[in-house]
């Protein structure tokens, strides 16, 4: 979708001190061979701060940069891929209460690791058709996997899960970057990859049922009617999805592929990053945010924001540069956005936590 008049006025991040991969191996949490294959150097682990509180930290940082009054905001969208706290409780309203304190809508969307990109898509519509005087929307995302019910190191062969919080202020008034296009595309015939043999009724609920993504993927590959080539075919199908979506989004933005200076992407481990995203896009790793994300791991909903913040704060992108945001989630679905940097950062690593 082509977007006009929507800017990123503020960006915030919260990343805890990373745990070196070699330390996780030494403690027996991570298999040495899997650790080497991942290409990761460390993973962000937060033992004390909840996901919604990390989101609040990031939100306050983004709000301070954006310089909007609290009553400028139309809504808060808070997202997480994992459980945020007690059942029958609203994490989005927790973030709203502590970050803005306004009587506006607060909600989340169930869109896995694409939730922040999809929130940008929603922000464009909400701000264009919202109440007069509402010029901004706060988007936050956070996850904390520090629970015995989740094995961040071994749950998926595609990634190691990181704890973090991120925030963006979308604004009609201006900002450090301009959103030019955003969209997604899915291959719903592959939804079973993340379902495996799990039943739909009764639905699984925390704390009695961990994710076990790798197990479900294997169950899907071994289903009675499976073809031995299905896993390879699913990878190829997703690669085609990513390539087609990127081509469409760039065309909607009116930006040529050669104009893309950097790419901020999902925090897959090294081989998966190449297979699922970089190779289908025909992009070298030098244009990616791998050097940064390999020190953090897969921050689910926050990967693209962490990458963008790092690129901008360290001066690796500046005024006039175009950045491609790209990601993936279960479904299978790919998401993409094109932004243009409007101004340089005031200082290297400004405001980072």
From TrEMBL:
Write the record's keywords in alphabetical order, separated by commas.
Acyltransferase, Cytoplasm, Transferase
- Positions of the Beta-ketoacyl-[acyl-carrier-protein] synthase III C-terminal domain: 250-341
UniProt entry tagged with the keyword Acyltransferase: yes
* GO biological-process terms attached to the record: fatty acid biosynthetic process; secondary metabolite biosynthetic process
Molecular function GO labels: 3-oxoacyl-[acyl-carrier-protein] synthase activity
Top-level taxonomic group: Bacteria
- Write down the PANTHER family for this protein, in alphabetical order: 3-OXOACYL-[ACYL-CARRIER-PROTEIN] SYNTHASE 3 (PTHR34069), BETA-KETOACYL-[ACYL-CARRIER-PROTEIN] SYNTHASE III (PTHR34069:SF2)
List the protein's name: 3-oxoacyl-[acyl-carrier-protein] synthase-3
Q: Which organism is it from?
A: Actinacidiphila rubida
What taxonomic ancestry is recorded? Answer: Bacteria, Bacillati, Actinomycetota, Actinomycetes, Kitasatosporales
């Amino acid at each position: 979708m082509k977007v006009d008049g929507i800017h990123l006025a503020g960006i915030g991040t919260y990343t805890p001190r990373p745990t070196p991969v070699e330390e996780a191996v030494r403690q027996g949490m991570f298999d040495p061979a899997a650790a080497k294959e991942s290409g990761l150097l460390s993973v962000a682990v937060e033992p004390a701060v909840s996901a919604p509180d990390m989101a609040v930290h990031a939100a306050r940082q983004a709000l301070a940069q954006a310089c909007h009054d609290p009553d400028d905001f139309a809504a808060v969208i808070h997202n997480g891929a994992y459980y945020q706290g007690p059942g029958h409780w609203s994490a989005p309203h927790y973030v709203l209460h502590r970050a803005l304190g306004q009587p506006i809508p607060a909600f989340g969307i169930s869109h896995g690791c694409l939730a922040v990109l999809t929130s940008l898509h929603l922000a464009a519509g909400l701000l264009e058709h919202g109440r007069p005087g509402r010029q901004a929307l706060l988007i936050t995302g956070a996850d904390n996997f520090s629970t015995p019910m989740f094995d961040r190191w071994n749950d998926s062969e595609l990634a190691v899960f990181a704890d973090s919080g991120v925030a963006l202020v979308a604004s009609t008034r201006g900002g450090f970057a301009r959103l030019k296009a955003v969209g997604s595309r899915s291959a719903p015939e592959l939804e079973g990859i993340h379902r495996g043999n799990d039943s739909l009724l009764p639905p699984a609920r925390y704390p009695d049922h961990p994710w076990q993504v790798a197990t479900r993927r294997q169950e899907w590959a071994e289903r009675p009617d499976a073809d031995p080539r299905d896993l390879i075919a699913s990878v190829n199908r997703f690669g085609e999805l990513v390539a087609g979506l990127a081509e469409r989004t760039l065309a909607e933005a009116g930006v040529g592929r050669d104009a893309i200076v950097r790419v901020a992407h999902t925090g897959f481990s090294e081989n998966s990053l190449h297979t699922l995203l970089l190779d289908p896009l025909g992009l070298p790793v030098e244009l990616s945010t791998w050097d940064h994300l390999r020190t953090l791991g897969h921050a689910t909903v926050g990967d693209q924001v962490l990458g963008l913040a790092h690129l901008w704060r360290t001066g690796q992108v500046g005024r006039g540069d175009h950045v491609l945001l790209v990601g993936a989630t279960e479904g299978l679905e790919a998401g993409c956005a094109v932004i243009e940097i409007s101004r340089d950062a005031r200082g290297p690593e400004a405001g980072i936590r």
